[in-house]
Amino acid sequence: MERLDKIISNLGYGSRKDVKSFAKKGLIEVDGVVVKDNGMLVDPESSIIKVNGEEILYRKYIYLMMNKPDGVISATHDNRDETVVDLLELDHQVFDPFPVGRLDKDTVGLLLLTNDGELNHRLISPKYHVDKIYYAEIDKKVDDSDIEAFKKGITLDDGYKCLEAKLEIISATEKGSEVRVTIQEGKYHQVKRMFEAVGKKVIYLKREEFGGLILDPELEEGEYRELTDDELALLRSY
Questions:
Q1: Where is the RNA-binding S4 domain (predicted)?
Q2: One of 18, 70, 86, 104 is an active-site residue; which one?
Q3: Known catalytic residue at 43
Q4: pLDDT (0 to 100) of residue 2
Q5: What's the rounded mean pLDDT across residues 159-178?
Q6: Is the distance from CB of 41 to CB of 3 less than 8 angstroms?
Q7: What pLDDT sits at residue 24?
Q8: Mean pLDDT computed over 127-132
Q9: How many helices (H) and strands (E) does the chain have?
Q10: How far apart are CA 234 and CA 214, in angstroms?
Q11: Is residue 114 within 8 Å of residue 100, measured between CB atoms?
Q12: d(Cα 183, Cα 106) in Å, to the nearest integer?
């Protein structure tokens, strides 16, 4: 059971103050009965709620896929920088979604946002071994010795030994390389620090996949959409 005004305001119909005004005007119905008590407790999953004659579609959780752009931080709010939540429409912001894990400020690509705390935990916990796949451009030639080092587990600058990671070479010259990296953790600046540990520098980084979910090629940087039922089922399979 939830307060009626909370249910309606969370679905983007206005603030709780607005909902109180709607109720006073007789614009809210619950199961065919006009309700003027905006604070009444209602089961939103079993009751039919209408606002000004329009039946509301109740959702407790939202699940979004974003193509995160460069220069935006993976946070819900910040006093200096634009956040990924700032890029959302108001009717999605009202659900108070948060990024699942994080991408560095200058890293682009697939970022999930949700208000489902349980799914978030399952996706970011190393014990569930959720693959995160990145495309990266490196300043030097990457070779088989790097592949072996990543497979054995890179030790970062703070002494932490990473889990086994998969490194694939797309192209490699003395001037630089293109690679694909698969990890199952999300340590701070992890991919960049892994390459630093083998004497190389990441100059461009994009996350392409997360938990089997592939970044929608139709999404430009800064754009997002809701997950399909099949995509959500895929994530939950972890």
A1: 2-62
A2: 104
A3: no
A4: 87
A5: 96
A6: yes
A7: 94
A8: 90
A9: 7, 15
A10: 11
A11: yes
A12: 19
> Would you place residue 70 in the very low, low, confident or very high pLDDT band (cuts 50, 70, 90)?
very high
pLDDT surpassing 90 at residue 58: no
DSSP states along the chain? -EEHHHHHHHTTS--HHHHHHHHHTT-EEETTEE---TT-EE-TTTS-EEETTEEP---S--EEEEEEPTT-BSSS--SSS-BTGGGS-HHHHTT--EESS---TT-EEEEEEES-HHHHHHHH-GGG---EEEEEEESS---HHHHHHHHH--B-TTSPBPPP-EEEEEEEETTEEEEEEEES---TTHHHHHHHHTT--EEEEEEEEETTEEPPTTPPTT-EEEPPHHHHHHHHT-
Which has the minimum average pLDDT: 13-22, 101-110, 150-159, 194-203?
13-22
Residue 73 in contact with residue 67, Cβ under 8 Å? no
Q: Of how many residues is the chain composed?
A: 238
Amino acid at 198: V
Tell me the average pLDDT of the chain: 94
- The pair of structure tokens assigned to 42 is 């209602």
CA of 53: how far to CAs of 27, 38, 42, 90, 166, in Å? 7, 16, 18, 22, 55
Question: ∠ CA(170), CA(176), CA(178), 5° rounding?
Answer: 25
Is pTM, for the whole model, over 0.85?
no
